[in-house]
């Protein structure tokens, strides 16, 4: 069983790596590990959709994987989620890809440039694969943007326009690439902060990373390993 974990930064995977047995360095971005009978490669792709898309495509070109798991911290758009809570993002979409008009922002679907069901989109959404029960976390919807929102006006706009629970800067890119290339994909996010006017003193990244490690390692142990 070959698993590829994709993260934006080394900070988001450091605690997880400490629980794994290192095997080899495949490139300066991809390193190989083991957990029991599971083979796990970790790609640190960089922040944002461009870096993620480029490096993920290259990784999937170089090696065949059974599944890709995108992990990292996220901002919550709702107070229904707690700081440090780890969630399963089953649906994601690009929230800043479109056309800005005088008084509104239109997605590529709303502007008519894309059909909402044009592959790999489903009603404008990019979907995770069915985990068949080995991911038991709360399911949420995500949005992906190339900036972390911190102004009252822009935060109000995305909350009004999208029905998402969490915000990241890579999730939709991972789903897009994997759905195109026919690779099972999943996204696990730990809430480090609420999306509100930026005040890092209210964030709790250490808690988010510790909880992310616990959930990711627990989930990896549940993945069925084929017996040769």
Pick out its properties.
228 residues, alpha/beta, Rossmann fold, 5-stranded mixed beta barrel, two-stranded antiparallel sheet, 5 helices, 12 strands, 31% strand, globular
Can you characterise this structure?
This protein has 228 residues and is of the alpha/beta class. The protein has a single domain (2-222), classed as 3-Layer(aba) Sandwich (Rossmann fold). It is 25% helix and 31% strand. It has 5 helices and 12 strands. The chain has a 5-stranded mixed β-barrel. The mean pLDDT is 94.
Q: Please count the beta strands (DSSP E, at least 2 residues each).
A: 12
The largest β sheet comes out as: 5 strands, mixed, barrel
Report, as a whole number of angstroms, the end-to-end distance: 11 Å
Second-tier CATH architecture: 3-Layer(aba) Sandwich
Q: Count of helical segments?
A: 5
**Which percent band covers the strand fraction?**
25-35%
Secondary structure topology:
Blueprint: E1 2-7, H1 14-17, E2 21-25, E3 30-35, E4 38-44, H2 49-62, E5 67-76, E6 86-94, E7 98-100, E8 105-107, E9 126-127, E10 139-144, H3 152-161, E11 166-168, H4 171-181, E12 184-194, H5 205-222
Parallel strand pairs: 1-4, 1-5, 5-12, 6-10, 10-11
Antiparallel strand pairs: 2-3, 3-4, 5-11, 6-9, 6-12, 7-8
Summarize the structure.
The protein has five helices and twelve strands. The chain is α/β, with parallel strands linked by helices and 228 residues long.
């Amino acid at each position: 069983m070959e698993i590829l974990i994709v993260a934006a930064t080394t900070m988001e995977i450091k605690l997880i790596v400490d629980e794994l047995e290192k095997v080899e360095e495949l490139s300066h971005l991809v390193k190989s590990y083991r957990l029991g009978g599971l083979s796990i490669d970790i790609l640190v792709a960089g922040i944002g959709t461009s870096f993620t898309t480029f490096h993920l495509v290259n990784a999937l070109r170089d090696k065949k994987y059974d599944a890709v798991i995108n992990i990292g911290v996220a901002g919550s758009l709702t107070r229904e989620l707690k700081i440090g809570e780890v969630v399963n993002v089953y649906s994601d979409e690009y929230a800043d890809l479109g056309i800005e008009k005088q008084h509104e922002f239109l997605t590529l679907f709303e502007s008519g440039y894309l059909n909402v069901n044009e592959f790999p989109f489903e009603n404008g959404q990019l979907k995770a694969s069915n985990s068949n029960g080995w991911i038991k976390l709360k399911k949420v919807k995500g949005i992906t943007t190339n900036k972390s929102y911190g102004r009252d006006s822009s935060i109000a706009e995305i909350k009004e326009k999208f029905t998402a629970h969490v915000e990241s800067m890579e999730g939709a890119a991972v789903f897009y690439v994997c759905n195109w290339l026919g690779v099972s994909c999943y996204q696990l996010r730990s809430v480090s902060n609420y999306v509100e006017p930026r005040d890092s003193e209210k964030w709790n990244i250490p808690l988010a990373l510790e909880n992310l490690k616990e959930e990711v390692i627990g989930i990896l142990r549940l993945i069925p390993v084929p017996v040769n």
